[in-house]
Automatic annotation (TrEMBL):
TM spans (from-to): none
Protein's organism: Ancylobacter dichloromethanicus
Keywords from the UniProt entry: Aminotransferase, Pyridoxal phosphate, Transferase
Cofactor requirement: pyridoxal 5'-phosphate
Keyword field contains Transferase: yes
Name listed for the protein in its UniProt record: aspartate transaminase
GO cellular component, one term: cytoplasm
Alphabetized Pfam families for the sequence: Aminotran_1_2
Protein family per UniProt: Belongs to the class-I pyridoxal-phosphate-dependent aminotransferase family.
EC number(s) from the headed UniProt entry: 2.6.1.1
The keyword Transferase belongs to this UniProt entry's keyword annotation: yes
Substrates-to-products reaction catalysed: L-aspartate + 2-oxoglutarate = oxaloacetate + L-glutamate
Superkingdom classification of source: Bacteria
NCBIfam families listed in its UniProt record: PRK08912.1
Length: 391
């Protein structure tokens, strides 16, 4: 029992969202937009439900959605995917990640991960029997370096679980870093599982580069995407997996015994959404970029050191320049300083955020706090107003 609890801890998102409800706080912790999502997609989903799209769809996903995923990635990322053999729909990206781990590793296999890491990764790797090998990314640049990769990869590396754009840092890895990583995967024969759920949430004119577009990775990478993130409807839990047919055959074995399918009405609405005009995606990015800038400016005005965010719904602040000595003096707040800061912030100021130490397996960076900016101006302003006295 104890070992199960150690391997499967309570997610920080549940903890912080519960505290946010208890304190009636503005929740800038868990990453979700506070608007209802694009009206046309919601209408398509409602129509599909009324039109009877309610029984099990094909295990691999509806043909309409698989085709739409292949078309979308051809247009946006230059990928050439066969919708029949190289695309699979899952119930969210988390299912896709869990399935990939169950399908691709044997107990004792080494898995390379990058910390800070999205909090689901490590528990899933451990429960699948994988042996984690952690690469540390260091603020404020959070760069992938050859030295760090060389320490993590061994001849026993079977899988790499990568995330780009990266949650929680907001980093978008550049082509040099991707090439470096691809080189290590090719040399050790590791499969690269790439969580690219934030592919459309990137700023300042950037374009997403998928690992599947690197020629040496085409046969050994698994790309994971998420409609919830693309359309800002995180509760929909419609994910997609793209991989070469040989890998896909193995991945689909895990999917059939996990969720088997994903609600067909949502799949049809997502298929419609992926075909939207280019301008819609660009305008959505621009809106999120404005929200990022609004929160960043507000937090800087309050005295926080705001770290750059090139993508995702998140920006981080470094607490180091603030005087946090009162936190150290309070025994009730024992634990990492960023966690103590977040517990105080939610209880006293009524604003929830996420301590970045929660994304480390050991020796955490404990002076960085993550805020979600995928919110209306009114929500951002209310949070800033409440935080007026905090620094
Ligand atoms: N992906 C979301 C985030 O990073 C959280 C999802 C969840 O609550 N499990 O905030």
């Amino acid at each position: 029992m104890n070992s199960l609890f150690a391997a499967l801890p309570t997610t920080v998102f549940e903890t912080m969202s519960r505290l946010a409800r208890e304190h009636d706080a503005v929740n800038l912790g868990q990453g979700f937009p506070d608007d209802p999502g694009p009206r046309d997609l919601r209408e398509k989903a409602a129509e599909a439900v009324l039109n009877g799209w309610n029984q099990y769809p094909p295990m691999m996903g509806t043909p309409e959605l698989r085709r739409a995923v292949a078309d979308h990635y051809r247009e946006w990322q230059g990928l050439d995917l066969d919708p029949d053999t190289e695309v699979m729909v899952t119930s969210g990206a988390t299912e896709a990640i869990a399935g990939a781990l169950l399908a691709l590793i044997e107990p004792g296999d080494e898995v390379v991960l990058f910390q800070p890491l999205y909090d689901a990764y490590l528990p899933l790797v451990r429960r699948a029997g994988g042996v984690p090998r952690l690469v540390r990314l260091v603020p404020p640049l959070w760069r992938l370096t050859e030295e760090a990769l060389a320490q993590a990869f061994t001849p026993r590396t079977r899988l790499v679980l990568f995330n780009n754009p990266h949650n929680p840092t907001g980093r978008v890895f550049d082509e040099g870093e991707l090439a470096l990583l691809a080189g290590f995967c090719a040399r050790t024969g590791a499969v690269l599982v790439s969580d690219e759920v934030w592919e459309h949430v990137i700023f300042d004119g950037r374009e997403h580069c998928s690992v599947l577009s690197l020629p040496e990775m085409r046969g050994r990478a698994v790309k994971i995407g998420s409609a919830g993130k693309i359309f800002g409807m995180t509760g929909w839990k419609v994910g997609f997996v793209c991989a070469a047919p040989e890998l896909m055959r193995v991945l689909s074995r895990a999917h059939q015994f996990l969720t088997f399918t994903t609600p067909p009405a949502l799949q049809q609405a997502v298929a419609y959404g992926l075909g939207k005009e280019r301008d819609w995606f660009l305008a959505t990015r621009a809106g999120l970029q404005r929200s990022r800038d609004r929160l960043a400016e507000g937090l800087s005005r309050l005295g926080f050191a705001v770290l750059p965010s090139a993508g995702t719904y998140f920006l981080n602040v470094d607490l180091a320049p603030l005087d946090l000595s009162p936190l150290d003096a309070a025994p009730v707040d024992a634990g990492p300083r960023d966690e103590a800061f977040c517990r105080r912030l939610v209880a006293r100021e009524g604003v929830a955020a996420i301590p970045v130490s929660a994304f480390y397996a050991g020796q955490p960076v404990d002076s960085v706090v993550r805020f979600c900016f995928a919110k209306t101006d009114a929500t951002i302003d209310r949070a800033l107003e409440r935080m007026g006295g905090v620094s």
